Amino acid sequence: MRLPTILLAVTLVATAGLALAASPVRQAILDGYAKEAGVAAFSAERGKAFFEASHAGGKPETPSCTTCHGMDPRMPGRTRAGKAIEPMAVSANPKRFTDSAFVEKWFKRNCDSVLGRPCSAAEKGDLIAYLSSL
Ligand code: HEC
């Protein structure tokens, strides 16, 4: 009686983990960007390059996404005022990219600061692909 109970518990935890990793809201956000960008798939590799690059055109004190989010998205970042920012990697912070209004608000604000322009749908999709792949 004991073993099957444990097995059932393990199965349930594994299933819940999987559901969390593949959040339907995150998938819907990605699908929206794919439609807008007119692409079938995003590139985690391009997303990583975009996240780590030094960009011109934005504010000089924030040249890169990593200025605040750090080089390792599985670790917390820090605002310029020193306030902690939770990790960006979905594996470390499953809440990431599960609220489209929140996602859009921060893309707008941060892309303005770093690039001096809005991020394209392709850039947003690649970035989420990267941060979901870690
Ligand atoms: C000046 C500091 C700063 C910079 C530079 C910055 N961010 Fe952020 N970012 C934040 C803060 C603060 C939050 C909100 C707090 C949080 O979500 O933990 C945030 C949140 C986000 C979110 C919301 C994610 C979610 O939870 O759904 C996205 C998307 C994002 N940033 C993208 C970017 C991108 C892309 C860049 C580079 C182009 C960038 N950020 C650069 C400070 C920054």
UniProtKB/TrEMBL annotation:
<dbReference type="GO" id="GO:0020037">
    <property type="term" value="F:heme binding"/>
</dbReference>
<protein>
    <recommendedName>
        <fullName>Cytochrome c domain-containing protein</fullName>
    </recommendedName>
</protein>
<feature type="signal peptide">
    <location>
        <begin position="1"/>
        <end position="21"/>
    </location>
</feature>
<dbReference type="GO" id="GO:0046872">
    <property type="term" value="F:metal ion binding"/>
</dbReference>
<dbReference type="InterPro" id="IPR015170">
    <property type="entry name" value="DUF1924_SHP"/>
</dbReference>
<dbReference type="InterPro" id="IPR009056">
    <property type="entry name" value="Cyt_c-like_dom"/>
</dbReference>
<keyword id="KW-0479">Metal-binding</keyword>
<feature type="domain" description="Cytochrome c">
    <location>
        <begin position="42"/>
        <end position="134"/>
    </location>
</feature>
<dbReference type="GO" id="GO:0009055">
    <property type="term" value="F:electron transfer activity"/>
</dbReference>
<dbReference type="InterPro" id="IPR036909">
    <property type="entry name" value="Cyt_c-like_dom_sf"/>
</dbReference>
<keyword id="KW-0732">Signal</keyword>
<keyword id="KW-0408">Iron</keyword>
<dbReference type="Pfam" id="PF09086">
    <property type="entry name" value="DUF1924"/>
</dbReference>
<keyword id="KW-0349">Heme</keyword>
